Each structure stands twice: as structure tokens, then as C-alpha cells.
Amino acid sequence: MPGMKRSLTIEPVAPGECSHILPEFARSDGVDHLFGIGRSTLYGLYRRGKIRAVLLRCAGSKSGLRLWHVDSIREYIKAEMARQNPEAAATSASTPPASQAPEVA
To answer: Mind listing the pLDDT tens digit for each residue in 44-68?
Structure first.
């Protein structure tokens, strides 16, 4: 109705803090940014079946986009840490992964 003041029932949407959210998949440069693991090392680990990835490409296309499964990389790093230093791995196992960490208010 004209002349009537409208009031909002909820607060307007504001940008939130999303830096604690980790991706499920990442490109090679994203994995390098997250873990410091380069492209050639990624492909070597993938060929040996240590980490998982998916290749996205159109049918009949020669090239595509390789996406790396971030959780498989994290699990590989934890397994290597447990193999190399069992005491440190026991301490790390008690802390939840960042993707499952409790939300900070």
C-alpha cells in the first residue's frame, strides 16, 4: 500500500567468512596452493593409485580438465605421516579434518 513503511523480517544477506571451507576437488594449481604438491608429483601419485582424480572432457575431445580429489590427497599425507612418524600421526588422528571442524561463531 502506498505510504506504508515496509519492515524487513530478516536481516539483509551479508558476505560471510568462508576461508575454513575446503573444496572437494581442485585443479593442479589449487592442490599446489593447499598442500604444496606440484603437478608432476600429483600425476606420479595418481599413476601409483595413491590418490584419486577425475578427467572431465567432452566426447571425442583430445584434452580435458583433471580434477584432484582433495580428501584422497589429505588421506595419503596422513598415511605417510603415520608410516614415517607413528607418534605424530596418533596426535593428528584426534583432531577433526578442517571440513568437519566445528563452526566458529
So the answer is: 999 999 999 999 999 999 999 999 9
Residues 6+ apart with CB under 8 A from 81: 88, 89, 92
How far CA 78 is from CA of 63, 75, 82, in Å, comes to 32, 5, 6
Nearest to 53 by CA among 26, 75, 74: 26
- Residue range 16-55, pLDDT digits in tens: 887 788 899 999 999 999 999 999 999 999 999 999 999 9
Q: Is residue 7 part of a domain?
A: no
Q: Is the dihedral of CA 95, 97, 102, 103 positive or negative?
A: positive
Asked whether residue 77 is assigned to any structural domain, the reply reads yes
> How far separated are the first and last CA of the chain, in Å rounded?
39
Q: Into how many domains does the chain fold?
A: 1
With b meaning 16 or more CB within 10 Å and e meaning fewer, what string describes 39-67? eeebeebbeeeebbbeeeeeeeeeeeebb
Please give the single-letter amino acid code of residue 23. Answer: P
